[in-house]
Specification:
Structural class: mainly alpha
Strand content: under 5%
Distance between the termini: 26 Å
Radius of gyration: 18 Å
Number of helices: 10
Number of strands: 0
Helix content: over 70%
């Protein structure tokens, strides 16, 4: 599967270390004008570069454009998830919630999306009850995801359920250690 959005997500950090974000934006804008046949992968790359250059609205607009070019729900969900992560990293929490909500509608079983969405709701948007419900549902689906266990453990700690929180956090660390 030669998935352009995912490939870019995996390689963007290397590209951004090789040149300043503004220079990468200029380069990709030029490539987009010249290579119309590569519009989807270049547009996804350009969206990421816009985020790196601090042009959040432009980046988010382009991610929405990329979503519209896919037919399959799983690909749309992946792009929404990437956009949500970018927005979360930039501190644009309401837009991150929007993107992650779209991803969760398209891929309701994706625990990474549910984990990130719950985190945004609880930690940044003061929508704790909704976030706790999401993380508990995700936990029931995947009890072996270390990221999910970490988030769930922190939320349980905030609610004063220290024994259960400690068990989740310890399991998260244990799973990560076994993976190494």
């Amino acid at each position: 599967n030669n998935e352009p959005a995912l490939i870019w997500q995996l390689t963007s950090a290397c590209m951004l270390e090789a040149m300043p974000a503004d220079r990468l934006v200029s380069l990709l804008e030029e490539k987009l004008r010249v290579h119309k046949d590569l519009a989807v992968p270049i547009t996804g790359s350009l969206a990421c570069a816009y985020f790196a250059a601090g042009q959040i609205d432009k980046g988010y607009r382009l991610y929405r454009e990329v979503v519209g070019r896919y037919d399959k729900a799983d690909r749309k969900a992946m792009v929404w998830q990437i956009a949500g992560q970018e927005l979360l990293g930039q501190g644009s929490y309401e837009k991150a919630r929007e993107a992650l909500t779209e991803a969760s509608k398209l891929d309701p079983g994706n625990t990474a999306v549910l984990n990130n969405l719950a985190y945004v709701l609880v930690e940044h948007l003061d929508r704790g009850k909704e976030g706790y419900t999401l993380i508990e549902d995700a936990y029931r689906k995947s009890r072996d995801d270390p990221d999910l266990l970490d988030t769930y453990g922190r939320m349980l700690q905030d609610r004063g359920q220290l024994d259960k929180a400690l068990a989740c956090l310890a399991r998260s660390v244990w799973i990560r250690e076994l993976a190494e």
